[in-house]
Design a protein that fits this description.
Largest sheet: 8 strands, mixed
Strand content: 25-35%
Order of helices and strands: HHHEHEEEEHEHEEEHEEEE
Number of domains: 1
Number of helices: 7
Number of strands: 13
Length: about 280
C-alpha cells in the first residue's frame, strides 16, 4: 500500500489535540493510546499535518531544525507496516548528540538504536532544481550537494503504546526520532562506494546486528533523494548545513541503562554511546 496523502479524515481541532497529547507525553514520559485506534478515519495526510503542527510549535518556541530523517527504508520494515515506501520527519538541533556521549536511557520511551549514514549538505536542495524528471532530485544530486558523509546512530523514541500502532502513529510521532548520535569523523563521499558500507552493532561487547548500507533503498543517497523530493513536493527547501539521516541498514535494537553501544563502520571507524 502506497501512502495516501490526498485527503484528510480529521478536523484541525483533532489534529491540534493530538499534538497537545504528544507534547505532554514527551514532557512526562507517559505513553498514550495509538491515535489510529482512537481515530479510525485518520489518514497519512492527517499524520503529516500532526507532524507539521508539532514542528511549527517547536520552532515558535525557539527550536531550530538542523536536519531531516527518513524511516522505514527496508523492505522488511515496510512490510511490517503494510507499505511500499518510507516515511520521514525532522531533526531539531537539540536532538543531535556527539559520539561518545553518555545519555539516560529513560530520556526516550522504549529506546532502540539503528545504524545509519548521514549526509551533511554543502549546498541547498531547492525544489525543482534537481537533475531528474521535472526537476526531481536524484542520488547524484545528493552526492553533488554533500560536504561530507558522517556515520551516525539513530535513537528511536515512541510516545504511543506500541500494541496496535500503525504507520499513521509513527508519522505523527515525527517518524519515531529520538536523537541522532553524530560520528566525530567526516568522510568524502567520493572516496567510498556508499552502497557497500558494512557495519557491526555491538552492545556490551557482543555483536547484536550487522548490515550493509545498500539495504537503504539500494543506496543511502537514493534514500536521501527520496526524502528531499517529499519536502520539495511541499515547496520546502532543504538548506545548506542540514544533516540528512538516510535510513537504517540494521534492525532497531532495544537498549537500556548500563548498555555500552558501538557501531563499527567499514572504513569509517566507530560511533559510541553509553546509556545510563
Amino acid at each position: 500500500m502506497t501512502m495516501d496523502v490526498s485527503h484528510r479524515g480529521l478536523t484541525d481541532a483533532q489534529v491540534a489535540a493530538l499534538v497537545d497529547e504528544l507534547a505532554e507525553a514527551a514532557r512526562t514520559g507517559a505513553r498514550i493510546a495509538p491515535a489510529s485506534r482512537r481515530h479510525p478515519a485518520m489518514t497519512v495526510s492527517d499524520s503529516y499535518e500532526v507532524q507539521r503542527l508539532w514542528r511549527a510549535r517547536r520552532e515558535a518556541e525557539g527550536g531550530r531544525v538542523a536536519g531531516f530523517k527518513i524511516g522505514l527504508t527496508s523492505v522488511a520494515m515496510q512490510q511490517a507496516f503494510g507499505l511500499d515506501e518510507p516515511d520521514y520527519g525532522v531533526i531539531f538541533e537539540d536532538q543531535i548528540l556527539a559520539a561518545g556521549s553518555t545519555v539516560r536511557a529513560t530520556a526516550w520511551n522504549n529506546a532502540r538504536v539503528e545504524v545509519e549514514l548521514s549526509f551533511l549538505l554543502a549546498s541547498a536542495l531547492v525544489p525543482g532544481q534537481g537533475s531528474g524528471a521535472d526537476g526531481a532530485f536524484t542520488a547524484e544530486d545528493i552526492l553533488a550537494a554533500t560536504a561530507c558523509v558522517v556515520p551516525s546512530l539513530e535513537i528511536l523514541d515512541c510516545h504511543f503504546v506500541e500494541d496496535g500502532m500503525t504507520v499513521v502513529d509513527t508519522i505523527s510521532d515525527n517518524a519515531a526520532l529520538g536523537a541522532v548520535v553524530r560520528g566525530a569523523e567526516e568522510f568524502d563521499p567520493a572516496a567510498f562506494d556508499l552502497s557497500w558500507i558494512g557495519a557491526k552493532l555491538t552492545i556490551n561487547g557482543a555483536i547484536v546486528e550487522t548490515g550493509v548500507s545498500g539495504a537503504v533503498l539500494g543506496h543511502p543517497a537514493a534514500s536521501a533523494a527520496w526524502m528531499a523530493n517529499r519536502f520539495a513536493e511541499r515547496g520546502e527547501e532543504i538548506p545548506a548545513g542540514s544533516l540528512l539521516l538516510s535510513g537504517s541498514f540494521t534492525r532497531p535494537i532495544p537498549v537500556s541503562a548500563g548498555d555500552a553501544v558501538i557501531a563499527d563502520y567499514q572504513g569509517m571507524g566507530e560511533v559510541r554511546v553509553q546509556f545510563t
